[in-house]
Amino acid sequence: MRKEGILSQLLALRNYKKQNVEKYLLPAERHAAELMEQAMLLQQQLEGASAQAEDPLKAASVYENIVNARRRGKDGGDRGHKAADEAYSTASKSGLTGRAKKLKQRNAEILEDANNLNSSGECCHLVRTRANVS
Questions:
Q1: Residue ranges of region Disordered (predicted)?
Q2: Single pTM value for the model
């Protein structure tokens, strides 16, 4: 009887395991397979989304480069303007601007004299005279 008792317990345990396998393990395996399939689909969608996001990301990077270049250009222009102001201030303090105005006026007078000489023909006479002297 003892062998029969152990045998019946083993059979009962085997039936219990078979019922649990059918009740729990097989549905869990099916569920795991479904989750794996969903994960693969999500992976494909993520790869597609990454490819679609590549162009907008490049465009954003280009825009950022443009903004940075504009900022650097503005900074350079500001520095140039400041340097020009400082140079003008220095020139004004040392009297260079007044001298430059006088030189500009003198240059205009010389140009006017040269134009007058050229239109009167005296210029050609002076050139011939110098050529004969040499």
A1: 71-100
A2: 0.40
The domain spans of the chain are 96-134
Q: Going by C-beta distance under 8 Å and a sequence separation of 6 or more, which residues neighbour residue 25?
A: none
Q: Angle CA(59)–CA(64)–CA(66) in degrees, nearest 5? A: 95
- DSSP string for residues in 56-124: HHHHHHHHHHHHHHHHHHHHHHHHHHHHHHHHHHHHHHTTHHHHHHHHHHHHHHHHHHHHHHHHHTHHH
Measured between alpha carbons, how far is residue 44 from residues 31, 49, 51, 107 in Å? 20, 9, 11, 79
